[in-house]
Please model this.
Amino acid sequence: MSSRDKTGKRGGWWFLLAVIIGYGVLFLFEPGWVKGAIGHFLHLLATLAPILAVVMALLWLINLLVDPKRIRKNLGHDSGLRGWVIAIVGGILSHGPVYAWYPLLIDLQRHGTRPALLATFLFARSIKLPWLPMLAYYFGAGYMLLFTLLLTLFSPLVGWLTERTCCR
Model:
């Protein structure tokens, strides 16, 4: 047994093979359903591929251009106010599905980003810039401004509490 078998690294390939065989058997009985499922998968893949490509490109750029010392300085435990501002602004400006950001965030964590800033980033993502006009239209500008301000102000508190609670 190789070391890859012991760590379960090949389990994904076995699962993929089982799914392909399952779809092959199902195709014998319900070919229309299988064609629809494959069409849906290809549509989903076409939708997610550009987002994942951007995230992978960002990961590549971070590894290429930013050394761990710089990340620790700007986003580490001694980053101060600069780290909090970067996390909040980055969270507000980030778009796309949150799961597409997970590889980038884990890479940042491995390079020394403190967990509080990662949680702050994720909480600040609740502010969706493209949706603010609609929020103002339906609930009023005052509500939209107060809601956005509170999310911005409380995101560092959520980050700090997250770090204190689970990352000791």
